[in-house]
Amino acid sequence: MLRTADTHPWRIADTNWLQVGAQLALAGLWLTLFRPVGDYLLMILSHEHYHTNQIMLIGILVLAVQQMVGRPLRLRLDAPPRLHWPPLLLALGAALGFLVVERFLDVNSFSAVLAGLATYGLLGLWMPLPAWRRSLPVALLLIGVLPFGDHLQTFIGYPMRIVTAAIVRDGLAAAGVHTVGVNTILVFENGISQVDIPCSGVKSLWSGMMFLLAATWIRHKPINLRWLLVAGVFGVLLFAANLARVAALVVVGPVAGWPLLAEMLHLPLGVLGFVAACAAAVALLDRWVVSAAPPAVARSARQPAWLTPALIIAVAALAWLYTPRPADSAGAAITHWQFPAELSTQPLPLTAAERDWLMRDGAEAAERWRFDWRGLRGSFIIVTSRTWRAHHQPERCFEVYGLSLDDSRTHLVDSDFPLRFVALGDGDHHSVLSASYWFQSTTATTDDYGARIWSDLSTQRTRWVLVSILFDSVVDPSAVDVAALYRGLQQAVAQNLVDS
Length: 500
Known about the structure:
alpha+beta; eight-stranded antiparallel beta sheet; two-stranded antiparallel ribbon; 18 helices; 14% strand
């Protein structure tokens, strides 16, 4: 039965509507502050490329519902926030970090993590502090659903692969094998490994940490210093398992000369290493991390009247301070190309949608040609930009056009000229086309998308060029004519970058 309270003109049926309005205003400002993350999250939730992440999200939600059975929620829209300092500092600190990342880095995954942590901190102002702390594994699991497998591969995978290869090289050298270098290890391991399996390479860190968080939640373990120690040991074990896998593959492959056996071993070695590390992590979790007993009497927290308006002012100020990283104001790239005289080219204009997509993401120039080179035919596209957002991994574009990705590996044209060679099929494991691409600046040439992004994190952006070639047939990247085409295009790009 509705009744008007005698003590407050805004209170109807025991609801303080003034407080409700203030908290709705706070929620609106919060969404405004983190609005740049919305499109990114919507893409993850809807795009078919992120099926694994979507399935994991559904699993977490199902587990959450199961954990909540028998624990009904008691929600009041007019409940004032509590003055809990840990959640408040997390909310404001992560929000400030979000502004810094958006202004200087412009990396969606970093921004989304900080938005998630800030939101978890804000929610803690309406929860008992022990319950908020117990919910940390759930919050981290939801944040972890973001596609960190791909992003770890991009941001951390590049230096991690270099470190792994260097350790393996030094270990082989100490054993008397001096003929295997870092590039040989990178090319060989990249050529036989399936980068999508969670037990292989840097993606094991993401998969492993998701496993550890789920185990922590299910076993009701707190996240404290001992838990961080377990997580650190677990990370070392995952790295060691991958290091042992790479070392074993290199010994069997390039050293012993049995590449087929190495290809057969890489999957079981990865699975065994990952499972062993996970089993060790669970054992350490049970042994080192003691479940916290709930407090006998929950301590009440102050609910000062000034806290809600102070939060509104603070979030409004943060939203007002939001400034995205500015676009580079440098001049446009030179689009007059001096290709080798032997290379016959014919312009193949991009569609309006393709051009709009590239230019919207910051490309300075994007051009495509048909080519004929010593009997080789196909097309290539050159995209020039000072921001990594205008560049991409062409494998996804090939898949959009209905081609299956049969193989993608690093190929060394010269010692300082790595490129990515891609074998494309018809979906039935029949290779029908070949493709190649690389990223090039005035100082470096690389096939690694992560290296391209890392270069963009400096305060002064440099101009990079993406060269993507699609052959009309299956080619051998080591063939003399194919290598000559690669070198000719690389020299044309180098000259263009100098003239720019």
